[in-house]
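Preliminary data (for renewal application), carboxymethyl coenzyme *A complex.
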Amino acid sequence: MDSKAKATLSFSDGRPSVEFPIYGGSVGPDVIDVRSLYAKTGAFTYDPGFMSTASCKSSITYIDGDQGVLQHRGYSIETLIENCDFLEVAYLILRGKLPNAAEKKEFDHTVTIHTMVHEQLARFYSGFRRDAHPMAVLCGVVGGMAAFYHDSLDINDPTHRMISEFRLIAKMPTVVAMTYKYNIGQPFMYPRNDLGYVENFMRMMFGVPCEEYRPNPVLVRALEKILILHMDHEQNASTSTVRLAGSSGANPFACIAAGIASLWGPAHGGANEAVLKMLDEIGDVSNIDRFIAKAKDPHEVQKLMGFGHRVYKNYDPRARLIQGACHDVLAELGLEDNKMFKLAMALEKVALEDEYFVKRKLFPNVDFYSGIVYKALGIPVSMFTALFALARTVGWIAQWNEMIGDADQKIGRPRQLFLGETAAKFVPLAQRR
Ligand code: CMC
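Predicted structure:
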């Protein structure tokens, strides 16, 4: 990288000033390279939550949060949603370019022939309580996959990395569906390799061995769109978790399990579940004002779930696209009068006109409408974040692979501003009061 300018840091206490190179990306804010700061000054930077810190270089996903733009490998999310299927976008995110017809056929085939899981893995499930949260089960099962596929765990071998990549992308729908089947006490459904990626997932979720299941193509396409929208979102909390876990050389299954754990939080992927709970709690349009007042109260923990984003200070483009998919699904199912959808739209309208939300640039995010679609598709609320994990696995692996190939990569090891005791006087246990 060539430095385009320099930034000078000067001190008010007489220490000499120091210079740092500034690099420009292909688009987006410049970065000041502070890697030499400690060596040159003995000081660290302080940036909890990475508000101003670029933790890596990346060429996968670009977000312009002010304009509400999301691109993967230079293509807008709107173009990809309209023209591509799930595995085509996955190929783009992973390989850096759209596949030609032969590449697509081969990629689809390779994913398809890896969809089945080791039979012993199915027994894993019986160690969990049936009412366990699906994300708890997923963390365990995906982390446990490293114990079944240790023929491909050498992260320095590109072939091993590619096999693990295929295994994870192919098996995630299978293990997510198994999580659901275990929870409701139905038999696991083996994958069917004559079906598309999303069709196969819906069959494993909703089919039973005693009868044929025919997925509705309109619903399959709507779910496919939602999954594409969740595939990657640059350096969010779970992706950064995957990168941090991977920076120590941990195997990909362990790293993806770490990502799943981070995604589970209600401020991240768990928000889609929280939105439905919130809509349930509001119950009726007449209660919106009271709820909004609570969400604005700094003394209340309740937030308007599905609103606000660290990066988007404009309408999240994914929310708009999901709103469209929501219309398609509700129309197909004859649920246009769906009370929850109407409540969500009314809530969105009130919030978008409220000074508190306007001033803080809080707009609907991807989770605001996705739960309504999932619910209409028959997916239970507790499974919502598991579907997010299924889709995001593609992004996590692409980002993990990019990190491993980056010559600047080092073990992630943040510093701290220490404010604790430094000379505590030891008192033996018997004398402590
Ligand atoms: N409801 C009410 N107030 C909010 C909300 C909200 N949803 N989001 C932010 N604020 C307020 C916040 O209290 C703060 O107010 P003040 O300046 O008076 O202290 C201000 O807006 C700035 O918020 P912040 O918490 O500093 O912003 P952040 O970038 O740290 O947090 C967020 C981003 C997504 C965690 C937060 O907006 C939030 O908790 N939203 C609700 C949960 C949610 O929908 N999460 C899904 C995110 S999108 C899916 C994903 O990528 O995982």
